[in-house]
């Protein structure tokens, strides 16, 4: 198998984007770690996504903004529907957008707008009525039996032009009204695109493209190397470097999915490019993840699934991230899949429940996600699990973002099936395991540990303990010097209890009790 590193190519692409966007919110890639910069400072999105219709009324949003700020969020993912922004062709109404930005600012929150336009969850219910009614100018997907659908075809030239025009106007307006404050930090382009109920569009334009040649740029990427799933499909069909979609990938629903992925990517790229030409802030797409055993069309066919991520990257170079809507139980595996091919992790949708509140530690501190955003955040209150997790993470975020650059950070969720992990961090072998005291072992543990230099560590979380072993030359044993509990207020450390005795297992380990969540600092020393 040919496998050449794509990194130089991807780094080159991202530095091009940065050159255009310095001064605005942008992504900075350094040493393989991508961070979001807002006001030129690293910014970790502790976000939540609103239910779909909440932001259509400013009055409805009034109490929600306050609650989000009180629940330790710093960013809200807010739907921005095309049909509200452009009720008549080329007549734009930005009063909702302006009111939302104002509401967020009043509560010191940032916004990621979700541009709900040509597609949302595979359907096209957010396109304005003037688009819906003009089904000749804006063609729809055809099913196998020729019957029409309410899904816009990704091959409709006038559709992508109309969506791009609207999005360009939106981005021009955001630049004019927000480039200084930077309340809006990123844009999601469309939402969970793809075809439901069939594996590909069967309109005349789609048939012609499907039986036409696979684009050269995609062939070049196949030759360079891709994720193994796509590579395997191509090799099984004979590693051809010319031919139509069935010739290059073989017949079947998976090939039709690859074809749709390409066409959605091209369409979305046109929209994103038009937006970035006005205001080049980071833009991403999100994926409705396939369940195991499901076929393309059971989930939106052409969605930016992990197994077609190279197709999306080649087809949509103006999209900075492919993002999983991660409700699935195998959270860590899915994060792994979405951090391949240089893709930075951002999770625009996930669960708000206890599991979600634990998983944010893993995503942010282990997979170095630029942020997380549980879905349906509206009803979250300051005493909810996610608010508590964000409360801890927001305090350690400045140190965490600093540590990310050197990869001196570990984030984890442990349980009875995976009770421990080991990592070299800050010059010690760090063993993290479920906390255990007086014969009682915690069921679950989660948190973050950051090496801050010279045998010093900062940790946050619950239900775990940490033990150290030296890995560099010198005295061969490590002991716990001091452990100090505390919290950060406006970035300043306010010490609380000095922990010792039972609270450090008589000096054997740095403990985070499963009763509540804590932040503490530990100093490690060595002896012989
Ligand atoms: C995923 C979609 O992206 C959201 O807009 C919302 O419809 C949720 N599903 C509902 O669970």
General description of the model:
- The chain contains 15 helices and 26 strands.
- The strands form six sheets. The protein has a nine-stranded parallel β-sheet.
- Helix 2 (58-70) packs parallel to helix 4 and helix 14 (354-366) packs parallel to helix 15.
- By secondary structure, it is of the alpha/beta class.
- The protein has two domains: 4-47 and 73-374, Alpha-Beta Barrel (TIM Barrel); 409-527, Sandwich (Chondroitinase Ac, Chain A, domain 3), CATH 2.60.220.
- Mean pLDDT is 95; it is low at 1-19.
- The structure holds (2R,3S,4R,5S)-2-(hydroxymethyl)piperidine-3,4,5-triol.
- The site of (2R,3S,4R,5S)-2-(hydroxymethyl)piperidine-3,4,5-triol (DGJ) has 7 residues, from loops.
Keywords:
528 residues; alpha/beta; TIM Barrel; Chondroitinase Ac, Chain A, domain 3; 2 domains; six-stranded antiparallel sheet; 33% helix; binds (2R,3S,4R,5S)-2-(hydroxymethyl)piperidine-3,4,5-triol
Largest sheet: 9 strands, parallel
Ligands in the model, by name, code or SMILES, are:
(2R,3S,4R,5S)-2-(hydroxymethyl)piperidine-3,4,5-triol
**What do the pLDDT scores average to?**
95
Task: Provide the gyration radius in Å.
Answer: 24 Å
Protein topology:
Elements: H1 7-21, E1 26-30, E2 33-38, E3 41-43, E4 45-49, H2 58-70, E5 75-81, H3 82-85, H4 95-106, E6 110-120, H5 129-133, E7 140-142, E8 148-152, H6 157-178, E9 184-191, H7 204-210, H8 216-224, H9 228-236, H10 245-249, H11 253-278, E10 283-288, H12 309-315, E11 321-326, H13 331-337, E12 346-347, E13 349-350, H14 354-366, E14 371-372, H15 385-406, E15 409-415, E16 420-425, E17 428-434, E18 436-437, E19 440-441, E20 444-453, E21 456-462, E22 464-470, E23 477-489, E24 492-499, E25 510-512, E26 518-527
Parallel strand pairs: 4-5, 4-14, 5-6, 6-9, 9-10, 10-11, 11-13, 12-14
Antiparallel strand pairs: 1-2, 2-3, 7-8, 15-20, 16-17, 17-22, 18-19, 20-21, 21-26, 22-25, 23-24, 23-26
Helix pairs in contact: 2-4, 6-11, 11-12, 14-15
